[in-house]
Amino acid sequence: MQLTSPFQVQHQLRVALYRFDCPPPQTIGDYGLDLLVDPDRRLLAQHVVDCAECARELTSLRVFLATETSPALGAKDLLRRVLATLLIPTRGGAPFLARGSERPSGLEYRAGPIRVVLGVVPARRRGTVALDGLVLHDTAAADAVAGRDVTLFADDVQVSSTQTDDLGNFAFDAVAVGTYQLEIHFADEVVVIDCLDLTLSDHT
After folding, report:
1. Could you state, in order of their start, the residue ranges of all structural domains in the chain?
2. What is the pLDDT of residues 34-81, one digit of tens each?
3. Among 90, 184, 199, 78, which residue's Cα sits nearest to residue 133?
4. Of 3, 51, 104, 134, which is the most buried if we count CB atoms within 10 A?
């Protein structure tokens, strides 16, 4: 019988209890957009006072929303923007990605019912990586994740764009190592992954 070390027990507890009593990211987003009403609004406000993780998430959302919107933007750019939350990095448990048979780990983000799983592998060109992604939706039909525009930004400048395939897969090849913002456009909102650090050391 294999004994469980104290470190393993501590890790398992941390995974099981990580933000177990926190509201979902969608609720925090609704609070930041002043969409909640009492008593939900009051209860969430009390929770944020005592929870550093949710407070940071709310602060990031408010900073994001405070960014001025250019009047030249089209209707597609004026969609409601939802900041995705990074979940505990998965190791061996991430959903299978299209090119990920050899990938040992992934990062999973959530924005309400939408999940985005990302993986990074070395690219052929030195100093670059390949980014693979899979978009999942917990409640909508399978075609809800097909044909979605996916865009990478660096310092508010568009670097590259692509679309998801019929299963929600997407990929960027030969992306320079650095920090990016990833946007996924849906019919009524844009899911945003901010401060996406594309380096191999954190994903392998």
Report:
1. 6-67, 81-202
2. 777 778 788 878 887 878 788 878 777 777 766 644 444 444 455 688
3. 184
4. 134
| CATH entry, 81-202, from 2.60.40, 3.90.550, 2.40.10, 2.40.128 | 2.60.40
Q: How many CB atoms lie within 10 A of CB 133?
A: 24
Count CA atoms within 13 Å of residue 179 on its CB side.
Answer: 4
Chain centroid, CA 185 distance in Å: 13
How far apart (Å, rounded) are the C-alpha atoms in residues 130 and 113? 26
Token pair in block for residue 175: 């992306």
Please state, in angstroms and as integers, the Cα–Cα distance from residue 30 to each residue in 90, 117, 144, following that order: 27, 23, 22
Q: Beta strand pairing status for 114-122 and 149-154?
A: unpaired
What's the pLDDT tens digit per position in 71-85? Answer: 444 444 556 888 888
* SS3 state at 58: helix
What is the CA 150 to chain-centroid distance, rounded?
Answer: 13
CA distance from start to end of the chain: 30
